[in-house]
Structures are given as C-alpha cells and as structure tokens.
Specification:
heterodimer, A: 379 residues, alpha/beta, 5-stranded parallel β-sheet, 8 helices, globular, disordered C terminus, B: 383 residues, 7-stranded mixed β-sheet, 3-stranded antiparallel β-sheet, 12 strands, 14% strand
Amino acid sequence: MAEVLVAMSGGVDSAVAAALLVEAGHRVTGVHLKLADVPTDQQVPGHGCCTLDDAQDARRAAQVLGIPFYVWDLSDTFRREVQDPFAAAYAAGTTPNPCVTCNEKVKYAALLDRATELGFDALATGHHARLRRDGAPVSAPGAGVELCRAADPRKDQSYVLYVATPDQLARTLLPVGELAKTEVRARAADLGLRVADKPDSYDVCFIPDGDTAGYLADELPGAPGPIVDTGGREVGRHDGVWRYTVGQRRGLALTVDPHVRRFVVDVDAPSRTVVVGPRDALACRWLGVDEASWAVGERPVSGDRVRVQVRAHAPAVLATVHLGADDAGWRVDLDEPLHGVALGQAAVLYDLADRRCLGGGRITRADRPAGLPLTTASR
Amino acid sequence: VRTDLDHAATTPPRPAARAALSRHLEAANASSTHTAGQDARGVVEESRERVARALGASPHEVVFTSGGTEADNLAVCGVVWADARRRRHVPHLVTTAVEHPAVLAPARWLAERGDCRLTEVAPEPDGTVDVDRVLDAVRPDTALVSVMAANNELGAVNDVASLAAALREREVPLHTDAVQAVATLDVDVDAWGVDALALSAHKVGGPQGVGVAVLRRGLPVEPLTHGGGQDRGVRSGTFAVGLIAACAAGVEEAVADRTALRRRLRRLTDRLAAGLTALDGVRRNGPSDADRRLASHVHLSFDGVDPTALALALDRAEVAGSAGSACGSGAATASPVLEACGIVGTPLRLSLGWTSTDADVDRALEVLTDLVLRLRTGTAVVG
C-alpha cells in the first residue's frame, strides 16, 4: 500500500484512475487543480478542464470513491508558466504545445515534487500511457520504470509525458493507460460515476470554445504584415503571425491566385512575414531540437535508430539521432521527409518498436527545401 | 474522533432544536385554514415570538428566511429598491470592505446594474470599522448603511449601537449582519437601535436552511420573492414549520446560555491563542482589546508555512479549522477581508462553539505545534 495523490481533472479518466488505485489497496487522496481562470460566462460545459462543473465532477467522483479531496488554486502559476508563454510562443512565430508545458511546469512535474514534499509516495494521473517495470505493469511506486504507449493507441498521451524523468516515473502511477477508453467508461458506469459518459476534451483547456486565434487576439497586440509566396511575392496580408502555423491550409484569405492550393510553410515573427507555398515546400528532412529531457536512464547515443513523433497524434517515423555534447542543439535526421513540422512543438523519441518513450525536446529549427526566401533555420 | 474548531462555519444543533425539528417535520401547511393548518401556524407564530424575545425585537419585525444570505439580501436589496421607488432616485448605499459576501455581493450587484451608488468603507487594520469613517460616507441620498456586528473571519466586533444612534439623527436606516455575533454577543435589536438585522440558525445551534431577517416597523422593504404573500408579503413561500420551530428553539437556547458560553469560550480561545502565539512566527490577528473581538474566534497568521500543506495536514490530523473560504470550485482563495486589513502570512481561523471543550484546545495545540515545525522544516506530513 502506498500513499497516492491523484490529480482529478473532473474527467472520466482521472476518476477511474482514482478508483483503480483504491481497488488496488492504496491510500488515495484526490486533488483538483484550478488552473485557468476561465470567466464564468465563457465556460462551455464539457469543454476544457477548468470549469466549475469540472471541479464539481471531480469532487463527486471523490465522494463516491470515499477519498479525501482538495482543490488547489494554481491559476497564478498556470498563467505565468503556461498561458503567457503560450501567447509569447505564437507571437514569436512558433506553435507551442501547452499540455507539454503544463505537464512540465505545473500539472505533472511540479505537482509531483509537491506531492513528494508532503510525503506522498506517488502521484497518479488519468493520462493514457503505460508504465512497465521489467516488462510488467506497474502497480506501486519504485525505480526501474519505463514510459510506454497506452493500451488504447488512439488515446495515447505518452507524447505529452516525455518530460518525465526516470526518477519522476518511479513516483508516478498511470492506471488507466492499461485500459481502452471504452473500458474506462464501462468501469466508470459500473462504479456509478456521473462522468461515465462525459465527452472527451480535445481543446486547449483555457480556450474552451476552441478559438485559439480569438484568444490570442485578446492576449497580443495587433501586428499586421505580408503573406508572401516562396518566391518572395506578396500574395496577401495578415493582422498577426500568431494566426498561422506551419502546415496550415485554411483561413489564409490570399488575394493573389486565391484558388491555388497553398500551405503555410514558414512563419517569421521578427519581419512579421508568413510564407506560403506548395505542399512540397513543407518537406522537412531533419529537425534541430533543444531542451532535451530523457525518460530513460540510458540515453540514446549519436547514430541510434529511433522513431520520432513531431506533434500530438502524429505517427512516429523512422529517424537517426545526432546528439551534441550537451542537451541543446541536437538533431534528428528523418528517413523520409515529413510535411508540416512546426517549430515549438515537441519532438518525442520512441524505440524502433514504437512502444517505449525515450524522451524528447523542443523543435527549434527545421530543414526547409533550398530556395525559400525565409527559413528560421538559416538565421 | 474529529476535533471541531470550525464552529463559525456551522455549529452542531442544540438538543432543543433537534427535538423541535423532529416534532414538527410533519406539520401541515401553516397557511391552510383547517385545524391542522392552524396548528402549524400556531407553531410558526409561537416561534416568531420566541425569536423576537431572544433578539429584543417585536414579533411583527421577525421574517423567517432560508438563512443568513437571504436575510442579508432581503435587507440590502429590499431597502434600496423600496427607497428608489419611494424617492424616485438612485439611492446611495454604504457598506464596508469587510462584509460577508452575503452583503457585499448584492451591494456590488445593485451598483453594477445602476440600482444604487455604492460606498465601501475601509476597515481598520484589526478588522473593525470606525464609526466616524462610516458617518463620513453618509450623504443626503443614502438609503441604507450596512455594517456587520462582528466579522466572520477575524471576529472583530463593531460598535453597532453608537453607529445606530448617530445614523438615527441623520434618519438613515442601519442594517447589521449579526450572523457571527448572536452566539456570544448580547445582540439586542432594541438596545442597539438597528433597523434591520440578519441571523442564521445553524451558527447558533439551529438547523441549516433557516434564518431570520429582523425588519423594523416603518422600514419600507421591497420583497425579493413573490408568491402567496406569506410573512406580510415580504417573503412569500410556504412556512418551513419544522425548520422555523427548530430555529426558534436553537436561538432561544443559545441566548439563554450566552453569558456562560462567552465566559467559557473566552478562556478557551485565550488559552489556544496563548499556546500558539508562543511559537515563533505565529501571530493572532484582529483586535487586541478582548471586548472588541468575539470570544469564539481565534484568527492566526503563520509565517513560512504553506497554506495547502497546512490545510491537508490539519485535515489528516482530524482537526477541522478554516484555512480560507472556498471559491466556487472549492479552492481556498485569498481573502479580500484579510487583504483589506493588510494581514499577511498563512491564515487559519479556529472557532469554538457550545460543544467545545478543554480537550479540543489541547488537541489543537498538540497538532499545530507539531505541524508548524514539520511544515517549516519540509518534513512530510503524509504517511
């Protein structure tokens, strides 16, 4: 039996995670994190994870399970560590993954430290990922743990957990990663939890209506600039580079040749320039990565063959890593070019079997085919 | 066994209240004209008389509500709206920054929708409200002044009688939220000379879900609930006979027991405060003059102690205190009252009531003395 703190978002996954831990005989305490301060009139029931309804759902699940439950207000930390950097990253022309940042700075790593400080043996979450020790599922905290893809491949969230270190994984429990989502819902229904059929949340939790551009327009000053093609010709105007992400095709509102299919191939914040081009111009054969974080004790070495995933829910593709002397400025060479690699996203490495997560980093540079007027990589 | 040091949140029902509630749970509708209805109405009216006697008011001035919040809302909105209608103007409302949200929220809501002009008087650093500061805020168009009898967090007691006398000269009515005060202060509507007063039964040993608004004769009040016209049309809705009877029994018992309870709690809270302030970096907040603070409340600041860890650790030790009031989601939030008073450090309110004993104080001292040290040295509090 271990003392386990479980982070309960108000969703079905974390509620069932808590239930499984109780069943396993652990002493379980629930905590709901108040992260974003979403104004009451902008809260959309069932969307995002920061509404009063979610706190209420988490509390009710804890009551049904008979575990103590607390709400911790981390909205200041969340604003400072996640929301502000999210807007700043878009303003800088990159495409951040706020869930990765949140796991690293607030929800997972920081909460785990806090749980440990308070005397808890482990932190559990409702993330869909599996932990393995000597090939067997992990049911109690302890060293020698590997982070692996979830039982339900479509729900796998190991991508956003790559920031977990071996030491942190030793104090982590992810009970629902062993179950398919349908099984999670069935367990919740069996337990009489009212969140059993609560819809999954796909949105960024602090933007419950899904309108990222609208959110950023409120957060950032207007910064109009040109949209150019790969030859440098102006083909449209924009009112802020944050409305664009590499690979984007919709909503470009081009004024020159509006019917020609074009994609955002580069975003240059300093010159406020958005570059559009054909799909081929998106082809990327290597990634430059910074801020490495390793989930495995034995780090990869240069020349290792791996799989790399460059955004949530993308397939992991074959690649070779080239590591530098430190954890900054390393490189991943892709066997086949990838289209739509956005700077700011995480490059997460998996073993060749695409089962075990090795770690990853933030994409800070990316190859673009020669001849483009602007490549962030060349500056 | 749990140690309850959160009586200001709710205190256990007194035996007379329990008995009254179960005796009258199956009462008929007190507005029915048949004999059973008349019997039920008899219970309501007898309860009204008992509450009036206990509070120094006339039975005609007692309105039963769903609790303290409704009573406060009725006084604040009801008086402002009635004055707006009578004088055909936008009335001015004076209240204080340390009021309970049951007063402050309707006041701000009225101001936001343009139904009143609002002045919020700042408190003194000890949480009390200076009478002259309040009087300075009063204008010719002031329809109501609302100042709490005692603050729910700090237990700071206000000089309501002096304020009422001064306002009487200016012909401005005074409402007082006496929710925290009734248990240990000699609340007397006549003697204080207030025009409206709010009370909550469960803070003195009655059941949750019932309260009292005292509204003096001659004070125009616009009703908030419209319907069958019960309680002189000021508060429509079927009389909750069982709750009303239990409220009266609880209030009556609390008032009869009050002088003895005050003496007992003063000794217990002083012992508790002395034991805790003997620790480094622990301060008692609120007025230093014993007559200006409730005998039931001890409000403390802890330096170098994490608030969430303190709340978790206290709960694990089965000591119930208040580490902050909860917002809608249930997170402990920074208190606007403490901010207004410039109080820093991790806050903890320990509040005692009619069931409190020396053993409760012993347990609290033992647990907190240990916890403060552990939390400061980063020693685990779980496991």
